[in-house]
Amino acid sequence: MNGYSPELTTLCYIEKDDKYLMLHRVKKDHDINKDKWIGIGGHFEQDESPEECLLREAREETGLILKSYRMRGIVTFISGDGCTEYMSLYTADDFTGEIGECNEGTLEWIEKTRVYDLNIWEGDKIFFRLLEEDRGFFSLKLVYDGHGNLIEASLDGHKMDLSK
After folding, report:
1. DSSP structure class, residue 103
2. 8 FRET partner, CA 20 to 30 A, in 18, 78, 82, 89?
């Protein structure tokens, strides 16, 4: 082995009343997601399954306990600065609890039609479209240039035309 160690994470979009719960990442310095709007989630802890990570991160970041969730796909995120991340992408549509304070940013319910107007990663727009289409399980590879610019995307092993 060459010492290569990819990051393993979960990302979840909680849905309610045709809105997503979005996290505006404004509280941490040196954050690859600084000032971006993303879903909730985070890094796997030792020996966790994707679902265990999802449920723990949802509880830690939002105070909510997810009751109904679905794995939608795997996103291979290549940042362009030496980091490769494999994200298990989920949506959730039932939960209990009250939204609490998040130490990573501000949580806000955003209408699904407005997410494209937010400061989100270019590749996130691709998987939001896939979620809207209710596409079956997918594998999406997103390659960035190290400066936040999406330079390549592949869906289920097939290169996508980014000029559209």
Report:
1. T
2. 18
SS3 for 60? Answer: helix
Range list of H helices, 27-83: 50-62
Q: How far apart are the first and last CA of the chain?
A: 39
Q: 65 vs 11, 43, 52, 90, 100, CA distance in Å?
A: 15, 18, 12, 14, 12
What is the rounded CA–CA span in Å between residue 51 and residue 45? 12
**8-state DSSP, 75:** E
Answer yes or no: pTM beyond 0.70: yes
Beta-carbon count within 10 A of 62 CB: 22
How far is it, in rounded angstroms, from Cα 130 to Cα 82? Answer: 27
Low-confidence ranges of the chain (pLDDT < 70): 1-4, 25-34, 164
Spatial distance between the Cα atoms of 18 and 110, rounded to a whole number of angstroms: 9
